[in-house]
Design goal:
This protein is mainly alpha-helical and 96 residues long. It has a single domain, classed as Orthogonal Bundle (Arc Repressor Mutant, subunit A). The chain is 42% helix and 4% strand. It is built from 5 helices and 2 strands. The protein has helices at 2-9, 20-27, 33-41, 69-79, 91-94; strands at residues 18-19, 54-55. A two-stranded parallel sheet has the order 1-2. α2 (20-27) packs across α3. It starts with a helix and ends with a helix.
Length: 96
């Protein structure tokens, strides 16, 4: 399952985000969103697998982003042109 999550991450285009639920659906079970979060928290390579592009179902960034916290996630998203307002992205505009 881990490998499928990481494979999915590398398909997300620049300037786009996905939700934990979207990845869980890709795995075949929307109820696996929390499992996806745990897998992302143990990401072995933040550069190869861009877990910073994953947000919750409302577009909120992760308070526990594994690679430097919420500020670092915000910075990485903004570098891709994604507008982050109060630690939230507009899913209507940026969802993959």
């Amino acid at each position: 399952m881990k490998e499928k999550v990481y494979e999915f991450l590398i398909t997300i285009p620049k300037g786009r985000v996905v939700t934990y639920g979207q990845i869980a659906e890709y795995l075949g079970n929307k109820k696996l969103a929390r499992v996806v979060g745990n897998i992302l928290h143990n990401n072995p390579d933040e550069y190869k697998y861009p877990c910073y592009k994953v947000v919750d179902s409302k577009g909120n960034l992760s308070k526990n982003f594994a690679f430097g916290g919420i500020e670092k996630q915000k910075e990485k998203l903004e570098r891709e042109g994604i507008v982050v307002n109060e630690y939230k992205v507009d899913l209507n505009k940026y969802r993959f």
